[in-house]
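User: Here's a structure from my thesis project, written as structure tokens. My advisor, Dr. K., wants to see whether a designed sequence matches the one we expressed. Can you design one independently, without my sequence as a hint?
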């Protein structure tokens, strides 16, 4: 991995810049303060010397001459004497200029100038310093020393002091000005300033070099730590490496802290890796469970569709049973009507029994025809009564359908139990369907029982009808010749037949009532099947919602699986074990 360069300034440059600025600022400050202090001391010493010379000179000047001096006295003996003394003092003491001053009307004028050249100042020539500045000397008898260099027209550096000239009474009659030649001192100060600057430069450079060496030592440790960190980065997440810094300073402490940080990060990454693997396994298992739940719900949905189809078939079968029961009811009504007709007919036979004798022969043929008609009607009635046998077939179909419904309800309960909490509502629906199927089975059993009773009655009626026809064919028809003699017995037989027909009529009414009960049971089955279909429809809607939730959970589980894989991939970028 290529090492990145710093953008602006390195730590070494920043520290050197700051340290250089501080060193230079301190050196300049120290040098400036030292130079100013030395300059003040030198100027103060020169001023003290000029003041001492002035005091000594003022004592040797005849104050009477100064007090009586006026313009134009340059040629007087007193003027020349004082001028000679001033010139001698100037040569002996190193004073550049020495002169007397007096004040008139608030203006300061030259008096006697110690310079004996042609450039000397004449008496009455105005002095360049104002009276206000020299007032302490003239009025307060104070010696004034100017603590700064003053340069004349020849470039000579001067330190000036003003000493009052007093009379015998201590009154100021004039002021002696002493301009001490400070050129040598100024030159010495300048030389000293150059040396000081040189020393500051040398000291600054030495300090900077020492500072550079110290900073390089520190930055060397920093670079060592940085290089180690670069190695860690370039090793593609190898957290098993450590920093080996043995500089003996804070950088070694920093390296040890980084090693502890790497160990802590490595421990965290190990936990993260373990947790990411657990998350990945959990997400994968959750995804498999969602897929299995989805498949189970799809199976349940298919089972519900099959139950719906079975319910529709059951409803259709119930419809057929209803139609068959209706036909049976019609047949029983016809049978009842026929029984009533038979009863009326036997009554009529009994009524005619007294007159049949005379008409027996005539009625024999009619009796044969009537016997044939009765046989035909009985056969037709028997044929119609056989429609009741379809009830048993239909009830058997209902029982088979209820068994299938119970089986479907059991399967639905099992699938709901597999679905867990999400299938609890579906389990309730499956239980209700099972109860409905059991009720349908009970109703079908009742129908089957009633059908057996009807069939038994029909068989009894058929047997009695057969006996009646046999009687007509054997006794009545074969013994018709004996009808005349046995009319009374025939009348009794007619009464018995009438009773039998009444019984047959009662049985027919009972069968009609049973068929009505069967119709009511079938209607109850029809209502139950409608409720069953409604419950299946609601269960289908519930399953559709559960399917949607499972699909969303499957998507979320897939997203969690993807996140777990990405997290595991990120963790795998680090090397956690040596």
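Assistant: Designed independently from the structure alone:
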């Amino acid at each position: 991995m290529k090492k990145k360069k710093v953008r602006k300034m390195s730590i070494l440059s920043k520290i050197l810049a700051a340290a250089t600025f501080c060193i230079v600022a301190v050196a300049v400050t120290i040098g400036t303060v030292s130079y100013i202090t030395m300059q003040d001391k030198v100027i103060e010493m020169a001023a003290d010397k000029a003041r001492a010379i002035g005091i000594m000179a003022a004592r040797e000047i005849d104050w009477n001459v100064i007090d009586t001096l006026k313009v134009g006295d340059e040629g007087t003996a007193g003027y020349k004497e004082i001028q000679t003394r001033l010139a001698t003092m100037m040569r002996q003491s190193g004073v550049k200029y020495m002169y007397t001053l007096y004040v008139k009307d608030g203006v300061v004028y030259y008096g006697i100038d110690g310079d004996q050249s042609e450039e000397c100042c004449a008496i009455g020539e105005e002095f360049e310093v104002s009276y206000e500045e020299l007032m302490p000397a003239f009025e307060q008898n104070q010696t004034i020393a100017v603590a700064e260099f003053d340069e004349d027209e020849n470039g000579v550096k001067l330190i000036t002091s003003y000493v009052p000239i007093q009379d015998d009474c201590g009154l100021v009659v004039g002021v002696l000005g002493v301009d001490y030649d400070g050129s040598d001192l100024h030159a010495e100060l300048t030389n000293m300033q150059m040396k000081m600057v040189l020393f500051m430069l040398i000291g600054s450079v030495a300090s900077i070099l020492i500072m550079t060496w110290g900073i390089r030592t520190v930055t060397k440790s920093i670079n060592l730590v940085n290089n180690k960190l670069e190695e860690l980065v370039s090793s593609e997440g190898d957290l098993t490496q450590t920093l080996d810094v043995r500089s003996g300073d804070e950088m070694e402490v920093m390296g040890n802290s980084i090693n502890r940080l790497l160990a802590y990060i490595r421990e965290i990454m190990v936990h993260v890796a373990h947790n990411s693997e657990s998350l990945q396994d959990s997400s994968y298992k959750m995804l498999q469970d969602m897929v299995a739940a989805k498949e189970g719900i799809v199976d349940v949905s298919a089972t519900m569709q099959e139950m719906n189809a079975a319910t529709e078939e059951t409803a259709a079968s119930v419809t057929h049973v209803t139609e068959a029961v209706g036909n049976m009811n019609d047949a029983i009504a016809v049978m009842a009507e026929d029984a009533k007709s038979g009863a009326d007919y036997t009554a009529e036979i009994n009524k005619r029994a007294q007159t049949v004798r005379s008409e027996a022969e005539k009625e024999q043929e009619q009796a044969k025809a009537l016997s044939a008609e009765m046989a035909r009607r009985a056969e037709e009635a028997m044929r119609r009564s056989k429609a009741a046998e379809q009830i048993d077939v239909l009830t058997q179909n209902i029982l088979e359908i209820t068994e299938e419904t119970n089986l479907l309800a059991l399967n639905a309960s099992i699938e709901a139990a597999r679905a867990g909490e999400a299938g609890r509502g579906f389990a309730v629906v499956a239980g209700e369907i099972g109860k409905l199927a059991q009720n349908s089975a009970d109703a079908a059993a009742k129908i089957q029982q009633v059908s057996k009773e009807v069939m038994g009655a029909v068989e009894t009626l058929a047997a009695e009808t057969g006996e009646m026809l046999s009687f007509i064919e054997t006794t009545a028809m074969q013994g018709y010749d004996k009808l005349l003699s046995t009319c009374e017995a025939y009348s009794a037989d007619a009464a018995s037949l009438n009773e039998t027909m009444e019984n047959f009529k009662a049985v027919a009414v009972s069968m009609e009532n049973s068929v009505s009960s069967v119709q009511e049971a079938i209607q109850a089955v029809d209502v139950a099947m409608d409720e069953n279909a409604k419950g299946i429809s609601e269960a289908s809607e519930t399953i559709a919602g559960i399917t949607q939730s499972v699909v969303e959970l499957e998507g979320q589980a897939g997203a969690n699986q993807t996140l777990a894989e990405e997290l595991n991939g990120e963790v795998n970028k680090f090397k956690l074990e040596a």
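When you compare it with your expressed construct, this may help: Residues 250-352 form the longest helix (103 residues).
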